[in-house]
Specification:
340 residues; five-stranded antiparallel sheet; 6 helices
């Protein structure tokens, strides 16, 4: 009996232990399942969060790109607009009155005979020509006169001929026994500056290098602040063409571009003319691009007329440029437009 109770008790304890173990296993299983569920939920949340962030970032980036594109487009348009504002439109040539152009050329010495029918086109419109052009425009009423001995304390003979003896002093030239023209620098400089836009150099010169038939001495005298003028009638060379020449100095066109005035000029000084049967019948001339252009003419005037009517395109062309400054045209340059 006792043994039966004992066995029953042992079985009861064993069953209780078994139930307890099963409960523990069940609790552990439930605990593991719960942990796994939590982890899965967390992973889902993380994945959804990442997916949402990526989508948002793409959307935001797209908006930024669009905004940047708009801004860049605006900046490009603004830059283009600013560049357009800064760039001056190309100015078109405007016709200039030919009579006014002719007067301007005449005022600047382009029509002056430098000897043997030569104009400055055949030489160089250099500093010397600028000075002589300005000095010749000073009114003679502003001149004063002095003798050689009044200008220099000591003189030495420089050149002597039948008509004149030229002496050189310590600062210039003069002719002994003659009154010398004294041209005030300030008056000459006003004219020079108005024509060339700068002050006139205070230095002497001779015009011989411009033309052998256009000989003058000019010297600057510092103590008088004036130019001393000497014309030498016995100086210079002679013309060798015998008088048979056709001279053409004719404006081809005149136009302005902005502040610049451009004048193109046909020029011919033909002194290699030929005669036939003692009459001026056959005339030939040459230019930089055309050699031995031959025409028939009764006389020089007829030759000139025929050249102007039929052969202007064969003549040399020179370009004279002036620029406008303070409402006044000043000389800028002279150049040949004809090939050498």
């Amino acid at each position: 009996m006792e043994n039966g109770n004992k066995i029953e008790n042992e079985n009861k304890v064993e069953n209780e232990n078994k139930v307890e173990n099963e409960n523990k296993i069940e609790i552990k299983t439930k605990s593991k399942n719960k942990s796994a569920t939590i982890i899965i939920v967390l992973l889902v949340i993380v994945i959804l969060g990442l997916a949402g962030y990526i989508c948002y970032d793409k959307i935001l980036s797209g908006k930024n790109d669009n905004t940047n594109n708009v801004n860049n487009t605006n900046n490009t348009e603004n830059t283009s607009t600013n560049n357009s504002d800064n760039e001056k439109p190309e100015e078109k040539p405007k016709e200039f009155d030919l009579k006014e152009a002719e007067n301007l050329l005449d005022n600047f010495g382009f029509n002056e005979d430098l000897g043997c029918n030569k104009n400055i086109y055949e030489s160089n419109y250099n500093e010397i020509f600028k000075q002589i052009t300005a000095l010749k425009k000073v009114s003679t009423s502003l001149y004063s006169k002095k003798e050689c001995s009044e200008l220099y304390s000591e003189v030495h003979e420089l050149y002597s001929s039948k008509t004149a003896t030229i002496y050189k002093g310590e600062n210039g030239v003069c002719v002994k026994g003659e009154n010398i023209n004294i041209i005030p620098y300030d008056e000459a400089n006003k004219i020079y500056k108005n024509m060339y836009g700068e002050d006139m150099p205070k230095k002497g010169f001779t015009t011989f290098e411009i033309s052998s038939m256009y000989y003058h001495f000019y010297d600057y005298n510092d103590s008088l602040n004036s130019f001393v003028e000497l014309k030498c009638g016995a100086c210079g060379g002679i013309c060798t063409y015998g008088g048979n020449t056709v001279h053409i100095n004719k404006i081809k066109s005149a136009y302005t571009i902005g502040d610049n005035l451009i004048i193109d000029v046909y020029y011919l000084n033909a002194n290699n003319l030929t005669e036939s049967n003692s009459k001026l019948k056959l005339i030939s001339f040459s230019t930089k691009t055309h050699k031995d252009v031959t025409i028939d003419a009764e006389d020089l005037e007829g030759a000139k007329k025929e050249i102007e009517e039929k052969h202007l395109d064969k003549l040399d062309v020179y370009e004279v440029v002036f620029t406008k400054k303070d409402g006044n045209y000043i000389f800028k340059s002279l150049s040949s437009k004809t090939g050498e």
